[in-house]
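Backbone shape codes
____________________
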Amino acid sequence: MKILISICTFLVLAICRDALAGVDQFRDDSFSLMDSDGNKLITKDEFLSFFRKMDYSGDTKVNASEFIRGYEEAGADYSDSLYTFFRFDYTHDNEIDKAEQAQIFAVMDVDKDEALNYVEYASSVNTLGTQVKLMQRIGAGVERIFDSADKKQTGFLTADDMLSILAKADTDDSGRISEEEFVSNWRNVTGDNADRSTRLFKIINYNATTDFGSDEEKKGLFEAFDYSHDGVVTRVEFLNAMTAIFARVMDSYDTDAFTQLAPSNINLTVIFVSMDSNGDGISLEEYMNAGKQEDLDGDGYLNYTEFMTPQIRSGIAPKASLFSFFHTDLDHSGSIDEHEIRTSYHVMDRNSDKKVTLAELEFSLLSFKYLTNLAAAAAPRILAMLAIADQNGDDILNGVETWAVVMAADKNADGVLAKDEFAKYWSTNSGLSERVSQDLFDIFDGNRDGAIEEPERAAIYQMLDYDHDGFVSFDEFMNAMLYSFELITTKISEEIRNNMRSKFDINTNFVLLDMDNSGYIEIQEYEKAFVYVDANHDGSIEYYESAKSLPSISPNGATYLFYLNDHNGDGKITRDEYIIGFEYSDLDDDNRMSKQEHEKVWQSLLYQFGEVSMALDRFEKLFAVVDANKDNFIDEKELTAFASRLDTNDDRALTTDELRNVMVSQVGVAEERADILVKMYDTNSDGKIDASEQKTVFDSVSKGKDMITMDDFTDDILKKYGQIFGLLDYKKLEDTKKKHGAWMKAHPDAVVG
């Protein structure tokens, strides 16, 4: 084991100081310092620039001395700076190189948009400050260990003194220290909890043996503490070494949190083949049969054990599997029935052809990964919050400690926790967005009066204490957070849907299409792009092929683009339809697309993304109105009842004016867009939408199911808007066919598969 620590210019680590004093000020000041252009976002370049400024030696790496100097200049105190350095030094080599700097940014960038907003940055800083405070708890015990070994009060420890520390833990005088002996001794002296003590032993016991204490191991441990290699360990060296070890302990929690939540090692092909008995895609019957096989007690329901076992067996991590259970248990009854299994099938069957392909299964996993990664990013930060409230360090919260976690946001200490107090505290400390934190508040606020007070304390504790043993374990609390997180998934999904642009970079897209680096995209290059996107080489592009070709566009952005280019609405993009994109972008009709033309067209598309995103948000509010029983589905009765409320003359038909007024006044759709949308629903163009047409609308949106899900509703809106904006280009289709056909005849060898 090698823990390298720069101490030559360090002051004594003030472990007993209040580590969080000044954290708020440093957080705000350092954010402003890194945000050089003042746009309330820290870009990756701005973040890395901060590290370049700390590289006083100019060797492209930041050592401990440089880091602490830079952080103290930014307003941090010594203990925060030292601990933060060790947390960021992922390779434990006493330097933070360029790769580690990029990794730090990636960890902080929760939404992966290549920029840190204030919440993302603040939550990371606050978590580190919270962990420093946790470290201070055991600080007095660590100093006692040093003082008891420094019998002559020299201020340093010899090799023999260090051995005397180990000897106290060797209770059976075997000459070696078992994990049990170490954990017991460490807890007695420092008051630390069992889990952290066990993790600490595993870090010190770098050979991973069942016990520790060979001459080589003892020598290695002493050398790791004796950084200056002068044969003694000073108090500063001792405390700094323990800080480094504690940082590695906390790092192991982060690793575990992601391992527990992030779906990994999943062989989708094996899962797919196991259900697809005849090789033509997974039918509803095959999917239902797979569920029945896991119903071990034969009661017609899957409890969480029956549901999770095959998922864990297939490579999904335990917490991710539990989150999946909550996500599938639509009525939150604690078990999954046939209706819920059937619904999950329909959600995966995106094209409603009653067959789930491997591509559809992969797409479902991508959406699931996005949500679990959000939870995984928040998990270690929430654990840090729990650890501070856990005064006796036993990983269990009693009633007082649990209430302390909930009321930690009550900054004015009036005993009444308002929603804005709660949301600001949780978003800053957990990394969840403020909107999600507000939704979490609503779950705790049982009487929905906008405040959490003492009378709600018992109900909150009962909700968290799943096994009703009178205590809330950390695991119970985290499971409750997963359950709560699932309850607000719909709202999180709205945020994802509204972020249609995602990380798309116009310039990168141009470079990819300009294959000969000529500065122009020629039509033959566009043709080659079609061949590459058409992965199965069937002469047309299906949705999944289109979405895969633009990985930096969000799922809804990709869906919108697909419908925009599918001019005849047959569910695929033909070569002719694809070439319309080139024709549309060739603004000066010179048969090639310049960088300026490409950028102008994409700026137009991104403007459309903005309009469609706002439309989604508004229409989803309408979905909530139509969904009378609030079960997150719209059945035919609810749609009929809604139409009846709008039918002012009771003729069992909606006039186009009635529907148009609703779209404009209640949904907020622009008048010209509303006119087109209404005409799309009025299939016979008689100026009204009768019961038959309403039935057609329901069947179309639900894709033949007996209910409309939010995803169905969203997909239909994206399709309608794709058709609205696509109408502009449809007129070019016939001309394009002729022009493209002539070009292909003249260039028969231009495209290679």
User: Anything to note?
Assistant: The chain has 35 helices and 20 strands. Residues 23-259 form one domain.
